[in-house]
Amino acid sequence: MRKHLTLWRVIFAVIMILGLYSSFIRYFRGLGAVSNMTDQFPWGLWIGFDCLCGVMLAAGGFCMVGAVYLFNVERLHPVVRPAVLTAFLGYLLFIVGLLFDLGRPWFIWHQMIYRNLHSVMFEVGMCVMFYTTVLFFEFLPNVFERLNWPKPIKWIHKVYPILIVAGILLSTLHQSSLGSLYLIMPSKLHPFWYTPALPFFFFGSAVAVGLAMTIFESTQSAKAFGRQLELPVLVTLGGALLVALWVNALLRFEDFFHRGLLKQVITPSYESYFLWLELTLTFVIPIGMLSFKKVRLSPQLLYLASISTVMGFITNRLNIALIGFETYVGHHYVPKWTEFSITLMIVAMGFALFGLAVRYLPIFPADTEHKLEEPERIRVSAGVLSHAGD
Amino acid sequence: MSKAILYDATMCIGCKQCEGACAQQNKLPYDDTVAAESLQSAHKYTVVLTKEDKFMRRLCMHCEKPACASVCPVGALHKTAEGPVVYDVWKCIGCRYCMVACAFGQPKYEWGALNPRVRKCVMCPDRVVAGKPTACAEICPTGATKFGERDELIAEAKERLRQNPSNYKPRIYGLTEVGGTAVFILSAVDVEEYGYPASARIGETPMPEYTGRVMERIPDFIPIWTLVLGGIYWISHRRDEVAEAEAQAKNGGAR
Fold first, then answer.
1. Contact across the interface for B108 and A39, Cβ inside 8 Å
2. Measured between CB atoms, does B112 come within 8 Å of chain A?
3. Domain extent at residue B7
4. Is the ipTM of this complex over 0.95?
């Protein structure tokens, strides 16, 4: 264990050093020096991965809050805190990513005063700002519990219904709006990915990824921190993921069918190779796996299915942001190593912050001090053990 | 009223004086090296392209309903009443959505700058407001680039097509593309050969409508979705309360 951690620390240090070097290039030599973005390819890896994927990967927060507090799926209670933590960190890092990508990040606050209500980007920006605030308040009880301050927890619990509804509303809006961003480019984005249904697909896939990410991070943190796996939780999530994937797959098929693209989809081409990769990872593998009860009951296999789903939808976002424009532009865009290194640095920061939070805050149920939760009748304590026999 | 530019490629002699005048007007460097560049960039807002003995200009189309202005989160780009689509650099946050959204690929970026700006032809707004033609139109020795009232230029372009149909491809590029622009092109060859997007590809729908269809639903969506979510919350928690109260009654209050 110790040796394992040390290796990861070395890798982390290397990533951070390279990332800091690239950050220096970014802020002292400009976007042109740090990236392979051009006038023809004004949006690169940072928009494709840090922004589109970052927000999608943080969807677990609103999915779990919705499942537990809105639909009262008590069984999932133990994963709400890690999911909210992941979301909170995800959005903070999304904003960090924006500070690298924006040409004039020092004016990021302009959108609060020079509002353009017709702009999808404006809507996304405002939603992300408000939702990060909501996540901050959803996250705060962890800190107060740690500090043993019951008073402010009670205050937050009083406004909890508002936070929950606002959080899900804001998530619905901006998860879908990230897809709407691309609606204005019908002549540029390849027809495989350009569809009027983009906002629906972005929202639908965010829900699927939210579920998959929760499976992934529960299993991953169980491994890393030597915690007990919450099998009934994973089984519930796996079942929900299968449903979400089927809905996504059917909508996707409908879309191809209605726009008469089925033949083009099965014809080999540069774009169709990437589409096949995406569809295999998002639908064929995980739906195939999860259709077997044996898989849905095995943490290990559920973990693999969730990884495939997450990788698949990451491919989907990168296809939309990068691959889908290459034919229009007429050449390939391959990110510079410094672009990768900044992205890696941001991801590494996410893992590190998650690790720190788990170590010092009562994120996982075993650490939860239920006496502070009782005023709200939140049944965290029941968590793992009582459902073990489900 | 609204102004526009009519560029008649059949009258163009490829002297590139418009490039030079544009550079001077916008305080950009211009020498033989820049003149030889066939790509528009942050330091070259307009370019005269050559193909055999024919020429073609490229510049911002100044759309009637500009995509760039509709997507900008801070409203740094806007269409003025006089016709030009102008840029307020002090608002810009550098998201580059305008560049991605423009069907004509016109906004360019200062990739090497530390406080970069979006750069494009802004149709000399100061001159236009003062009642003068744009720098490129003023200097054009043959009248290939002509500046004037939008309506009058459309009428004139139609008249030229009517009088010399054999000289031209029978269309005015910019008249209906993306809902109409303020730059019209007459040409003997298809403008697509010079990198202009095909009319069929970009269509006649003003670009802002594609996102507008979704954005206009949001004011309705927010209260409805809030009610739905709040309703679900209330129902599922109410059910719990009732179940608990019943259980309590059954057990004689000993929970």
1. yes
2. yes
3. 3-206
4. no
